């Protein structure tokens, strides 16, 4: 099985065939991280409810938390108005960031 | 004046010289939209506190709300761990989406 053609038709992929995916913590609204998905990653995310991305550097699928245990259980998936960005509302287990921070935006404040 | 070299050195731009920028409503945590910035757009955003993006389709700077009045006053700017995504915490005036929706993620729910 692959991604629902009705959804696939609404995606506006970049030159690498990817759309951006933003993960947000359910309830608190924290923006946790941004990563990338192709059609298959989105399909896997929608059907398994485990956030699955496509790694541009490694050119492979990546189930968030598969090695770290820091999984994302997916409650909601939304596509934006121009079809190039996805919002995932998730329950993040532990740290979302590979540095150990709760979110990937915790460490570097440019303006406050 | 241009972007602080210490910040510029931390940016990991894509092939078009851009980083992704996520706008989030202060307080509610709503994810409003995703757009793109180059160094100059980020510099203008940091110095004016008015969210300023770079339009890929029009190849020009774009002060959010300049024509619609739906401005974004910027309270906080954060850079993510790998330097390719910026998070803006803003006060959104009116609708963030050009369709009139509050956010660009309101209309198309793929999973709930």
TrEMBL record, chains A, B:
Primary location group: cytoplasm
One Pfam family recorded for the sequence: PRA-CH
Bound cofactor: record note: Binds 1 zinc ion per subunit. Binds 1 Mg(2+) ion per subunit.
Keywords associated with the record: Amino-acid biosynthesis, Cytoplasm, Histidine biosynthesis, Hydrolase, Magnesium, Metal-binding, Zinc
Binding positions for Zn(2+) per the UniProt entry: 81, 97, 104
GO CC annotations on file: cytoplasm
GO biological process, one term: L-histidine biosynthetic process
The Phosphoribosyl-AMP cyclohydrolase domain, residue ranges: 33-105
Oligomer and partners: Homodimer.
Function: Catalyzes the hydrolysis of the adenine ring of phosphoribosyl-AMP.
Protein name, entry field: Phosphoribosyl-AMP cyclohydrolase
Organism: Saccharopolyspora hirsuta
């Amino acid at each position: 099985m692959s991604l629902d053609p009705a959804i696939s038709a609404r995606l506006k992929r970049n030159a690498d065939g990817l759309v951006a995916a933003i993960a947000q913590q359910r309830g608190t609204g924290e923006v946790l991280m941004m990563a990338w998905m192709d059609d298959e990653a989105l399909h896997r995310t929608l059907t398994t409810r485990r956030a699955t991305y496509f790694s541009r550097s490694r050119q492979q699928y990546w189930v968030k938390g598969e090695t770290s245990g820091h999984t994302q259980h997916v409650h909601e998936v939304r596509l934006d108005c121009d079809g190039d960005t996805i919002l995932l509302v998730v329950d993040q287990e532990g740290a979302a960031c590979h540095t150990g921070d709760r979110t990937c935006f915790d460490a570097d404040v440019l303006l406050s």
